[in-house]
Amino acid sequence: MGVTRGAALDSCGVTIGRLSPRWSARRLRPRLLPIAQTAAAAVIAYYVAQLLPLHEPRPVFASIAAVISLGATYTRRGPRTFELIGGVVLGLTVADLIMQAVGTGPLQIGLMIVLAMGTAVVLGGGELLVTEAAVSGLLLAALGPADHGLSADRFLEALSGGAVALAVGFLFFPPNSALLVSRAAHSLFGELGATLEQVSRALADADPARAQAALRGAREMDAGVDALEEALATASATARFAPLRRPTRALLDRYRRTFPQLDFAVRNARVLARHSMRYSRARLAAPDGLPEALHELAEAVWMLAAAYDEPQRAADASELARAAGARAREVFEREPDLELTAILTQVRSLAADLMRAAKVLEGSTEPPYEQPSEELLDAVPAPAVPAPA
Asked: Are 231 and 87 in the same domain?
């Protein structure tokens, strides 16, 4: 009973902590701008729709269209707006036809939802289009059919609301596309580097608990890869349509071209962590050179993260990754143990992934996957050109 009461008190304390002004402000701060933009778009859409030759004196559907198009996030606003408009048009059409034909009521509402959502699915609509088709029909049922019969007013409201949302989201207050991607990328780089450092210490100390923690971290990096991919999609659309964000296209292109190699690096890190956990369970300390190779890989990851803004640092990242791969090869030649070989193979694969990404940042026009890993890792680096006196 005492344990239960203590757990309840702890839970209460956590809840109170989460309701504190400081915690609330920290949660709200990054979302204030999109919330303000959504509110502004709803108001602007209402007044814009009133300028149209509509029979409806209160064009609330225009505000609804703007709110759903923008929401409280920057993610995929363009596709969402087009899906929304399609869903509104479909839902209103079905609802208007049913209400004009058989009136309103619970059974008619059920039939309207089935027909609207079913039609959206048949047409290949996404989740938002299917849901919005039903919601638009329900809103129309709640407001009642138009007194002047089937009308295009609601369609025009949805179109004007979507247009206002696009204008607010892309022309006047576009999100900082470079910041969106950089935050997602640096979060992923931080997790990858920290995981490699943790694997290094786990192998050096023959610590299976630390190795297991590293494996958990490696598995959680998939969410970071998805977040970076989503940020790239959002930022690319913003840079394409928002004139204020077009100067960021070169930076976004660097992230886009290296994304496949970062994805491969995360996958190889996960396999590396799994083999390292298996090796550390035998309580065998890693041979000299392996922890150092992993430490160099972590440093290469952090150097690569800096190279997106300063491409001249990509060569340093590439050299660190090459050194890690060479050190792993030396360990293999000294101790060709089967279980150890699996770890060393992943070290070299990960080093090759980082080197390919670095080559892109250095400005290489050759596709990064063209050169075989062994050839890439074992190539003799070109000597540095001395600066003129």
From this structure: no
Helices 60-70 + 153-166 axis angle, to 10: 40
Read off the pLDDT of residues 85-124 as tens digits, 9 standing for 90 and up.
677 777 777 777 777 777 767 777 788 788 888 887 887 7
Predicted confidence (pLDDT) per residue in 215-266, tens digit: 999 999 999 999 999 889 888 877 776 667 778 888 899 999 999 999 999 9
Query: 197 and 166 share a domain?
Result: no
- Residue 247 token pair: 């100067």
Same domain, 97 and 238: no
Closest CA to 168 of 61, 33, 59, 60: 33
- Which of 181, 365, 170, 156 shows the shortest CA–CA distance to 262? 181
- Structure tokens of 16? 């109170």
In a domain, 379, yes or no: no
Other CB atoms closer than 10 Å to residue 211's CB: what's the count? 24
Domain assignment of residue 306, yes or no: yes
State the pLDDT confidence band at 19, using cuts at 50, 70 and 90. low
- Mark whether 249 and 318 lie in a shared domain: yes
Helices 338-362 and 290-307, axial angle in degrees (round to 10) = 20
Within this chain, do residues 160 and 269 fall inside the same structural domain, yes or no? Answer: no
In the chain, where does DSSP find H-type helix? 2-18, 21-28, 32-50, 60-70, 77-102, 106-122, 127-143, 153-166, 177-205, 208-241, 249-280, 290-307, 314-334, 338-362, 373-378
Same domain, 212 and 327: yes
* Residue 212 to residues 121, 179, 205, 206, Cα–Cα distance (Å): 44, 33, 13, 12
Domain containing 110 equals 34-172
